[in-house]
Model the fold of this input.
Amino acid sequence: MSYHRIAIVSPGDMGHAIGRALAEGGHDVVTCLAGRSPVSRARAERAGMRDVADFRALVSGVDLVLSIVPPEAAAETAGSIAEAMGATGARPVYVECNAIAPQSTRAIGEVITAAGAVYIDGGIVGNPPGVAAPTRLYVSGPAAESLMELDGNGIVIRACGSEIGRASAIKMCYASITKGANTLFTASLVAAEALGIGEVFQAELAESQAAFFKRMNAVIPRLPADSGRWIAEMDEIAATFASVGVTADFHHGARAVYELLNRTPFAAETRETIDANRGLAASIRVYAGHLAPPA
Done:
């Protein structure tokens, strides 16, 4: 297989950065901006992505579709692409790159393969291309090795087997630690603030848990901007754990923390508009102010 023309659905924070990296690697990258916000349109333009009218036009002109949407939109997106394939007769390879459970990606794979297209399971690990270490795209499925030609320009492709679901499993287990740990840190700091010992507790962390406290200062004030997108991801992680008999309760709790952050005024920020001067202590005070009353 050769992937010259590539579609990105959709040009969000991760999607547009991957699109830009692929364009810089010589690929023709397209997207569909119908109904998208001005922010998404600006991102797509910066990334050098071409806009087409609708999904039918999208699938008709590409070799490969990368679905990079919020997890709650993954199934609907796949269904819309499958419908477009049926209407046009086009059969681009479809890569499911979203943060979903292995059982979710297998269900979506059935929709795409029923439409006559090749399906590849994917899981994105790390920051968008161009930020720190290269982005890792884990892929699995019978055709996963074909994506090795996309390796480079800030994206590392890692094939991890012929079974659909393995790549998503890696993403779920990885995010269970990174995004899950951030909610535990946040919950502890918010509880301390609500108990009236926030300042003392943070001083103790700075002294005895310096590495963790450095991470808290760097990450926690920025979490509300992403919290709305990560609520459903916690559900997918919980379902992944439950499918093998591991407790889902950790990430049900993580979901509740992201719901709290999504209630704060900071949730209206984007990664581009986050107030870089807002520190950890000020953020935690606001988070604590949006706690639900105790039962």
